[in-house]
Amino acid sequence: MKKLLGGAAGLAMAAALAAVPVLANDMAPMASLKADGAGEASAKDEGSLKALTFGSWGVDLGARDTSVKPGDDFDRFANGGWFAKTEIPADQASAGVDYDVYNLTQRQLRQVVTGAPATSQVGGLYQSFADEARVEALGAKPLMADLAKVAAIKDKSEMARFMGASQGAFGTTIVGGGPYADTDDPTINVLWLGQGGLGLPEREYYLDDQFKPQRDAYRAYIVRTLGLTGAKNPEAAADAIMAYETEIAKVSWKIADRRDIGKINNPMSSAELAAYAPGLDWNAWFAGAGIGPQKRMIVNETTAIRDISALYAKTPLDTLKLWQQFHVANQASPYLSKAFVDSRFDYTKVLSGVSELRPRWKRGLTLVDGSLGELVGETYSQQYFPASAKAKMEALVANLKLAMGDRIRANSWMAPATKEAALAKLQKMDVMVGYPDKWRDYSGLKIDAADLYGNVQRSGKFEYAYQLGELGKPVDRKKWSMNPQEVNAYNGGLENKIVFPAGILQAPYFSETVDDAVNYGAIGAVIGHEIIHGFDDQGRKIDANGAVRDWWTPEDAAKFDAAAKAFGAQYATYEAAPGAFINPDLTMGENIADLAGLEVAYDAYHRSLGGKPAPVIDGLTGDQRFFLAFAQAWRDKAREDSIKQQVASDPHSPARWRIIGPVRNVDAWYTAFGVGTDAKYYLKPEDRTKIW
C-alpha cells in the first residue's frame, strides 16, 4: 500500500535493509470516508475506536454522484458526492479510505502505547519521543558525536567502512542490501545488493525540469541542515552535494528497470563484484556492514553500481564527508529539536503538498511502530482482531484461491503444461492472516525513557542485526515483513506467500457484518490482487517453490506479453496530474494485479452464492454492490504534488486509475451498469484485456 507518511517524519533506520527489492509489490493506495463526517460513516468521532462502516450493509450510497454515467467516469459515479464535500487535512497528502483506516489504527495504537508503563520498552520509547522539552533542551548535541565520526574519516576506505555500517545507523551509502531468498535455491537466504546514494525520491527529481521546485527545496534544506550543524560555507557545500547526487542520478537505473527480476538477478561472488566495480573498497564496505566474503550474492543494478562506484572514486573526500554529514543529520532530524524538525518539514512538504506537520503523538507512534512493531502488534491483535474475523477472512481467501484455480483451468489460450505449473504455484501459495504464528523477541533491545537519540540508534542496530542474522540461513517463510497493525498487504515473491495484516482487515475493507458483495468487492479484490502478484509480469517468472525459472511455453509467454503490452497502452493514456502520465512499464505488475484480482474476486463472489441469485438491496443488484464497494474502497483525493511524486516513484497507479483502469476491461461491469458504446471509457469486447 502507498506509504502514507512519505518522508516527512518516520523512523529512518527501522527499514535498515530497504535496498532489498520487493519482487511482488504490495497493494497500494486505497481510499477514504473521512472520520470528520465528510462521508456517511457511522463512526464520525475523531476519537472513536470503532471501524468506519457504511449504512446497514456496507456501501456509502450518499457518496455517489448519480448525475455521472458509470461508463463516463465510474470513480465519480461511485464517489463524486464524497469528493465534493471532502477536504484533505492539512497534515495529509490525500484523503481516502487508506488514511481513514490508518488514522483509526493510530487511535487504536495510541491506546495500546500510552497505556504501557514508562518502564516497559513500548512505554519508554514513546515517552522518550513525547518528552519534547528534553529534546528541545538538547538541541543538536546528540548529533555531534556522529558528525565527529564523519569528520574524522581520513580516506575513502574509511568512508566505505562508514557507509557499510550506516545500514544500521544514521548515514547513507552508495550501495545497500541484506538477506533475501536465493533466486536459484529459494530455501536459503543470500545477500542482495542494490544501488543507493540519492536523497531525493527518484532519479527523475534530479534530471526532469518539472521537479525543479523540489530540487530547489532540497538544496535549501541541505543549506539549512549544514548551517544548523555548524558547517562552514553551507551554500558551497550544498552545491557540491547536489552536483554529486546529480551525477549518481544520471547513471542510476530507472525504477521500471529495477522491478524487472530478469534484469536485477545477477549472481556474483564478493571477488567478482570487486573486479566488476573497482571504484569502492569493497572489503572495507563489507567489514563495516558486518558481512564476510560471499561466494554468491545477487547484485541488482549492475551497471549503476559499477558507475556509482567509479564516481565515488573520483569524488573528493571532502565532498563525500559533507554528503555523509548532511545525510546523518537529515536522518536524525526527526529526533532532534524543533529547528531540525521544522527545517526538514519545510523540504518534505514541497514533495507532498502537505502544509501541516503531523501531531507529535502520531510521529511518536511511527517510531514505536518501526522499532517494536510486533511487540505492539501482539497487544493490538488481541484487542482489535477477534478470532471470528480471522476465521471469516481465511474462508474468503480460500474461496478466492478456488476461484483463481477455476480461472486457470478455464483459460482459453494457455497450454496444459503452463496451466499445470500455474496450478502448482497456486496450490503451494501460503496464506497468512492477521498476525504471525510466532512473535519476535525484543528482549535484547535496551530502551531508556530519557534517551530518544540513543533509543533510535540502538533500535536501528538491533533491527539490522536481526535482519542480517538471516544471511546464509534457511528462509523462514512464516516470518512477516509487515507488522500486524499495518494497513497493507503483500505477496512474498520468492517465498510464494500472501500476507494480510490485521490493520487492513477493518471496515470498510472488511467486516463480519456487511453484505457479502461488499466484502468481496473490497477486501476480496485486495486478496485477489495479492494472489495475482504471483502471476503478474514478474511473478510469472517465479515457480511454485520460489525459484526464478521460466515455466511457460514460448507460445504462452508471447501471448501473455502481448496482452500485457496492450493493457499497458491503455494506462499510458491516463494523465494522473497535469503533464504526469502513468508509466505502464513501472506500474504493469500492479495494474495486472488490480484487473485480474478484481475478476478473481468477482468469480469468488458468485461462487459464494452457491448458484442462487443475489438479493437486490436498496435497488442495487449484487453485481452493482460488488463494483461499487470496489470503487469506494479505492476512492482517494490527493494533492497534485503527491500524485506527481507517486507517478515518478511508485509502481502503483494513482487511485482514480485503479478504479477506472480495471473495470473498463471487465465484461460483468458493462452488464451490471448498462454501459454502452457511447460511454467515454467503453472498450470493444475484443479490446478488453484478458490475462488470467
What distinguishing features does this structure have?
29 helices; four-stranded mixed β-sheet; 692 residues; Collagenase (Catalytic Domain); three-stranded mixed β-sheet; disordered N terminus; 11 strands; 51% helix; alpha+beta; Neutral endopeptidase, domain 2; single chain
- End-to-end Cα distance: 23 Å
Q: Average pLDDT value?
A: 93
Strand content: 5-15%
Number of helical runs? 29
Query: Which class best fits the helix and strand makeup?
Result: alpha+beta
Indicate the multimeric state.
single chain
Largest sheet: 4 strands, mixed
Strand order of the largest sheet: 2-3-5-4
CATH architecture title of the largest domain: 3-Layer(aba) Sandwich
CATH topology of the largest domain: Collagenase (Catalytic Domain)
Report the top-level CATH class of the largest domain. Answer: Alpha Beta
User: Got a strand count?
Assistant: 11
Radius of gyration from the CA trace?
25 Å
Helix content: 40-55%
Number of domains: 2
Low-confidence stretches: 1-45
How is this fold's topology laid out?
Elements: H1 74-85, E1 94-96, H2 97-114, H3 121-130, H4 132-138, H5 141-151, H6 156-165, E2 175-181, E3 189-195, H7 204-207, H8 212-228, H9 234-251, H10 255-258, H11 261-264, E4 267-268, H12 270-276, H13 282-289, E5 297-299, H14 302-314, H15 317-332, H16 338-352, H17 360-371, H18 373-384, H19 387-410, H20 416-428, E6 430-434, H21 452-468, E7 490-491, E8 497-501, H22 516-521, H23 523-533, H24 554-571, E9 575-577, E10 580-581, H25 584-608, H26 622-633, E11 636-638, H27 640-649, H28 655-663, H29 667-673
Helix pairs in contact: 2-17, 2-18, 3-17, 5-15, 6-13, 8-9, 8-16, 9-14, 9-15, 17-18, 19-20, 19-23, 19-25, 23-25, 24-25, 25-28
